[in-house]
Write a sequence for this structure.
């Protein structure tokens, strides 16, 4: 006589091993949710300490909501904020008031954020500085608008300029340190050079002079070198090639002619000619500098770098080139901020509100870096939620944000709660 089939085989009951596996996954998911909330709570508590109570609440709600919505439009990220507000209209009104209010200054939390990130920056950490545009081609009534070059369309449109500074920490972690939006016509700005100096001074003060500044050809100007020299900063600046320098033999020569002669001399002496270096100085200053040039592939135009780092052998010259190679992470970071955080897609006209929204975008990316630096377990778990189309992306912030947004979606569907709702103390 055949035995009756068990309930597990008939599908009425789950096997014990399957039930245990599902229970373990649920416990692990609850653990990751709890750890993610704790990370956000610690991050906001540290940077919001100098602010008053309304600003601390504003930061607690806004940073996580900007990440999960991927937008700086107040109406969009306000939907992901859970509070006791009975109508979203009043929530949006409160958020806009924080952005426009004279008491809504975020300079204190910004200084605290830089001081926290300074712990992960070493004396030889590359500090990448660059200029980007915040294009607003359809804007007409926004304050201090001026023409900027939209790099995506290669044409002049209305918008603002933005000074950006990133630190390239160990493990390919990019730490945003400054995103200063400004209009040239703003009387408090003065000029683009003065605004750049303010950004550098703010970062230098937080880092206590650590780091090596990396800049592209746009910073190959005598006023920029005077800025580096007066602040005793170490720097690596890419050259346009038309600058005249003075060699150790007191010969005044253009950089392009100098590196070509050095390359020919190295070829005659049967020495490697892919990378060359020479001690020089500027005609306006007596500080010793080093010119490093490298040829890549079949290109006839070399990469020329001017630095005040000591370069006396081939290894040190290659190290200077490696420092400059880290500059590409700046392009990846601003592309990520514009594409996934909505750096250019905001719907406010107030000038101060624009500046504070950009600070929120920087803090949102800073929180992703905070997770990468502080919790490998949370990082690996969030990577598991990443779309298969992004798993080969070298810039890991895309994967991390995808995982965070997917976990938030599952959290809302399965638990009916907000993933990044900060845990209140007490």
């Amino acid at each position: 006589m055949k035995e009756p089939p068990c309930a597990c085989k008939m599908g009425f009951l789950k096997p014990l091993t399957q039930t245990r596996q599902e229970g373990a996954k649920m416990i692990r998911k609850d653990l990751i949710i709890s750890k993610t909330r704790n990370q956000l709570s610690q991050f906001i508590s540290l940077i919001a300490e100098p602010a008053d109570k309304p600003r601390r609440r504003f930061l607690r709600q806004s940073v996580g909501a900007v990440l999960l919505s991927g937008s700086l439009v107040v109406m969009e990220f306000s939907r992901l904020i859970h509070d006791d507000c009975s109508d979203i209209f009043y929530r949006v009104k409160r958020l806009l008031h924080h952005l426009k209010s004279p008491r809504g200054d975020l300079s204190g939390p910004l200084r605290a954020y830089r001081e926290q990130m300074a712990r992960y920056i070493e004396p030889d950490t590359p500090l990448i500085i660059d200029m980007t545009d915040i294009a607003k081609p359809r804007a007409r009534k926004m304050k201090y608008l001026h023409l900027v070059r939209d790099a995506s369309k290669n044409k002049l449109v209305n918008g603002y300029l933005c000074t950006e500074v990133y630190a390239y920490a160990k493990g390919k972690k990019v730490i945003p340190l400054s995103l200063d939006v400004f209009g040239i016509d703003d009387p408090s700005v003065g000029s683009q050079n003065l605004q750049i100096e303010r950004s550098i001074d703010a970062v230098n003060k937080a880092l206590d002079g650590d780091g090596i500044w990396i800049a592209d050809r746009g910073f190959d100007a005598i006023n920029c070198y005077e800025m580096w020299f007066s602040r005793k900063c170490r720097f690596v600046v890419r050259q346009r090639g038309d600058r005249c320098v003075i060699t150790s033999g007191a010969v005044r020569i253009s950089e392009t002619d100098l590196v070509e002669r050095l390359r020919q001399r190295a070829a005659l002496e049967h020495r490697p000619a892919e990378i060359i270096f020479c001690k020089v100085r500027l005609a306006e200053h007596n500080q010793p500098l080093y010119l490093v040039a490298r040829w890549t592939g079949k290109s006839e135009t070399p990469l020329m770098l001017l630095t005040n780092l000591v370069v006396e052998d081939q290894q040190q010259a290659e190290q200077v080139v490696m420092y400059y190679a880290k500059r590409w992470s700046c392009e990846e970071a601003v592309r990520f901020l514009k594409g996934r955080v909505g750096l250019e897609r905001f719907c406010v006209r107030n000038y101060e509100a624009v500046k504070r929204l950009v600070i929120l975008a920087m803090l949102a990316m800073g929180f992703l870096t905070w997770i990468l630096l502080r919790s490998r377990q949370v990082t690996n778990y969030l990577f598991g939620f990443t779309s298969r189309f992004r798993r080969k992306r070298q810039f890991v912030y895309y994967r991390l944000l995808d995982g965070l947004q997917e976990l938030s979606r599952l959290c809302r569907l399965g638990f009916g709660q907000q993933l990044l709702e900060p845990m209140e103390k007490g």
Q: What stands out?
A: Confidence is low (pLDDT under 50) at residues 16-27, 422-426. The first strand starts at residue 126 and ends at 135.
